[in-house]
Amino acid sequence: METSYAPIQARLMRAGTIVRQPLIEAAARVQPGDAATAVMTDLRQVPAVLTDPDVDIEAATRVMIRRNVRSLFVVDVDNAILGLITATDLLGEKPMQHLARYGGRRADIRVRDLMTPRARLEVLPMAEVAHARVGHILATLKLAGRQHAMVVEEDGQGHDAVRGVFSASQLEKQLGTPVSTGAPARTFAEIEAELSHSTAQ
Known about the structure:
The protein is α/β, with parallel strands linked by helices. It has one domain (36-200): CBS-domain (Roll). The termini are far apart. 32% of the residues lie in helices and 17% in strands.
C-alpha cells in the first residue's frame, strides 16, 4: 500500500532571519616543534573561498569580511587558479598605484588588476610540509615576507591541486604570540573601516 505524505505548512520568512553557519572551534595551541599540519588550513576539510577575476575590489573585500578570510583564490570557470588576491592587495598601495597609472575610479578596479598572477605564486609541496614543523613554516613566511603560503599536492592525473594554506594570523592564534613576517597584517576592523571610507566617496 502506498504511503501518503502530507505537505509541510510553509510560512513567510521573518525580518532579521540569518543564515546559520558552522561554529568555528578554537584552534589548539601549538609550539614551534609541533607538526606543521597542525597550523595548516586543510582544504579537504574547509572549503576554499573563491572569486572571479572580474569582480570589483569592494565586492571582493566584502567577501573577505563575510567569510573571515584575508585572501581569496582567483579562479576561472573550471576552478583553475588564475591568481591570489589578499587584503593587503585590496587595502594597501596597489589600488592607488593602479589609479595613478590607468586613471578611472576605485569602483572600476577589478580583482584581476591587483591580484598576484598564478605564474608568480610560490607554493610548498605537501610531501615536504608533511614532515615539517611549525617553526619551519614561521621561517618560510619570514623569508618570503608574506602573510600566506599555499601547499600543493599532485592529484591522480599528475596535476597540482591546492591542498592547504598557512597564514600568519592563524599562526599567531595558535602560538599565542605575535608573528612578524615583514608583510602588513590587516585586522577586520581596519578592512571594514577602509571599505566604509571607500564606498562613502
